[in-house]
Amino acid sequence: xxxxxxAGPIALGALAGAAMIAFGNExxxxxxxxxIGALLAIITSVLIEIRKRQVQVRDTARVLYAxxxxxxxxxxxxxxxxxxxxxxxxxxxxxxxxxxxxKFAPATPTIFGATASQLALLPGKAPQxxxxxxYRLSALRREIENTVASASPSDSANxxxxxxxxxxxxxRQTLEPGRTALEALAPLVPDSAKMxxxxxxxxxxxxxxxxxxxxxxxxxxTLLAEPFFVD
Length: 231
Fold this sequence. Notes:
The chain is mainly alpha-helical. It folds into 2 domains: 3-48; 58-224, no CATH class. Helices cover 68% and strands 0% of the residues. It has 8 helices and no strands. Helix 2 (26-80) runs antiparallel to helix 6. It starts with a helix and ends in a 7-residue tail after the last helix. The mean pLDDT is 84. The chain crosses the membrane at residues 7-25, 31-48.
């Protein structure tokens, strides 16, 4: 809202009130000033609320982006190894125990759930992209939990290859929505690049010979170019 669009009519009203008083119409002049005073109070209140909303949007976007970068980084990190090994047709990278598979389950997001009622404040497609990514993340988590629950406790390598390939598919399905959500939120967060770098390095510094400078978006491009087969 332009301040001049607000100040212009008020200034004209003040001049009109002053003219009325100067030319002897004192009562109408005073009434005009009272109306102007009321308008100023209303407009001030509106401007304060607009500023509060801007700050709320900025702060909400920032905390959501901080959590999102870690969630996407984990999906990318795990997709690079071992899960892209399950993507090609007839892939057979090996079986896995249920206890090991359980370690790949993504963390339940806390900030997204806590700020769900404020998503509508975010501009553009940011709310939709966040919801789509978290839907895919939830599908991945359920897939792992259900697979672990159905595994035979008597078999150390008890997760069949078909189930592992399905988990690999769920990992792949988080990548594009994750990138889209990051791109939608980044313009709302002044230090988004540093936050993405921090989240990325926190994972890749644990992997030998990793390129710590390669951004998540570039890693996702590389992963989505990998051979992939769906039964």
